[in-house]
Description:
This protein folds into 2 domains: 7-149, no CATH class; 155-226, no CATH class. Helix content is 37%, strand content 17%. It has helices spanning 7-13, 46-52, 82-102, 155-158, 163-178, 192-204, 211-226; strands at residues 38-40, 61-67, 74-80, 112-115, 130-138, 142-149. The radius of gyration is 19 Å and the shape is elongated. The longest helix is centred in the middle third of the chain and has 21 residues, at 82-102. α6 packs across α7. The chain starts with 6 loop residues before the first helix and ends with a helix. By secondary structure, the chain is of the alpha+beta class. The chain is built from 7 helices and 6 strands. The protein has a 6-stranded antiparallel beta sheet, with helices on one face.
Amino acid sequence: MKSNFNLRTFLTENKLTSNSKLVKEADFAPAPNSDVMDANGEDFNVATAFKKARVDMSKPVSVRYMSGHAQYATVKVNEMSAEDAIKKIEAERQEVRKGFEDDGREVPSDLHGYEFDNYTTFEEDLPEGHEYKLSYYLGGDYTYVITQEKAEVSEADGKGHDEEIISYIADTYIQNAKDGDRAYAEFRDLNIRDAVQDVVGILQDPKHPLHGETKKEYQIVSRDKARGLF
């Protein structure tokens, strides 16, 4: 059976081009098993996995490719756009599927999949300033590890706020502004880094019109993250 999947069409229809920011749930129809901690490679495509891992599509990612086992493993690291990383890994996923589908077989459930918690990579092996996002593994012999530069929130301004949550709220406000919500107009033309700083400022300013809502949103997302839902 020939695969009709067109990555370019998927990226365009689901707003996963380089002009997008953090990929959000609303950008996709619900994906089967997208609420599980890790998932089989047949559960959903790579673009959805990037969404689940909250990869910032406006920033490059580091792709660490490992093949083989233990001390005999070959490791290659390349930096590329998030969109190019999706193309590269989705092509691998489709190739895996094609070999089985051409023979009229189902893809084995344990052959390939995604890991959203870091089971495979030591912190010291991550590029400086990066955080783990996700891995795509194939048959236990090949693994793509995706990392990305951490969102910047200065220690002086952050006052202990979770950088990932702040980034999520900032991206949400940018999208709200672009959707025409005047309450978020100040975020319309901001890049994600500037928006992060603005969100921190809002949290610190009780007189800001968005202070109450932002504080509530931060608390909600913090609870979701603690429950493993974020």
